[in-house]
Amino acid sequence: MSRDVKAGRLSPEKIAQNYADLHPLLSGHEAAVESARCLFCFDAPCTEACPTGIDIPGFIRKINSGNVRGAAVTILDSNIMGATCANVCPVEELCEQVCVKNTAEHRPVSIGRLQRYATDHLFEIGGQPFERAEPSGKRVAVVGAGPAGLSCAHRLAMRGHEVVVFEAREKSGGLNEYGLAAYKMTDDRAAREVEFILGIGGIEVRNRKALGVDFSLKELRREYDAVFIGMGHNAVNHLDMDHEDDPGAHNAVDKIAAIRQQDLNDIPVGRRVVVIGGGNTAIDIAVQIKKLGAEFVTMVYRRGFAEMGATDFEQEVAQTNGVLLKTWATPERILVDDEGVTGVRFEYTQNDDRGHLVGTGETFDLPADQVFKAIGQHFDENPLEADDCPDMDRGRILVDENRRTSLDGVWAGGDCVAGADLTVVAVQDGKLAAESIHRYLTDGAAHG
Predict the structure, then answer these.
(1) Is residue 316 assigned to a domain?
(2) Is residue 7, in this structure, part of any structural domain at all?
(3) 394 and 363 within one domain
(4) CA distances from 116 to 21, 81, 111 (A)
(5) 324: closest CA among 362, 357, 366?
(6) Alpha helical stretches, state H, 173-311
């Protein structure tokens, strides 16, 4: 069977329509009506559920009173990447889940959409609401220009420190620029957010500079007063089976990055596509390939719907966009011919009486012109020298509650440390680390 992979399966107009914003911006009237639904709770459970501790009733009250700029400042003071988080944060499992309006009779307040309304307004009118403190004379190195690194850099700059950010890729933004579905981050939102963050001053970004290649952690510790590591997940998991790198088999993470950086009309897609995995990355690639014109897209996960890493909302996005979600099957073999991948053989799975996943011995084949692997990512510690590597815990950098590592003067946060792999959590890590670094630089290591 020859593979059927090509670009331009749909017209440019149809692709543009398919890639329209997943969450359309609220109008002024809609924002006023929605904000009026909030009860402005004193001990707000939504604020408690937010990893960055945004004063949610506070910013919604400001929207309701017409102070939209003030609402944005309230958001960004706690979460400098509140604009991105308004689009990609799993609010249905965090703030909106615990909203007191979320009952059998009523839906929760649309916190995420109100947050986007406020932050988009601030970006549109321009201006930098945050000011730098007097220069401290201290210099801090930040490794990684993703959510954790940029959050840390911005808070340090606010405290008057000079920050140099080292980023391996051509553009800054990390996951926000390269790792999110294009329909979630339209209108160059990630780039505009980076520009806003850097607008405070005191932050220099050096792109195409990779740890372990262009510099070492030991060098940074020698040249700077403190170091923050925010490298995120820098490696992808593999199936460890033959032919997974043959033509037609792709790493979903790399493909998502390519879709974000290329003209959508130039992206080649198959007619029959199989996605292996059950997380949000699997959803992102499956939906995007379907929106580019693939006829059949099947996402296969080894366990049931309840065990999927993808949220219920993300699963619904996939299903409403024509993606078939198939559960209880694990890849056994990638099928190939002389031209590359032709499909995947799966084995049906089930839980045994001890709750362990086992194969049933029964298999089925799914034909495919393209196969995307989305089975997770991990932190690769190889860029860190063996004699200058912080303590690790199950493949991630070990940190304390202030995000300090075992190395003096070194902090870490984001997906390279243990915790939930969410943008909002990475932002909080960077913020907490920055405050700890500030105390370290001003009061000494004993008070970091």
Answers:
(1) yes
(2) no
(3) no
(4) 12, 11, 9
(5) 366
(6) 175-178, 189-198, 217-223, 252-261, 280-291
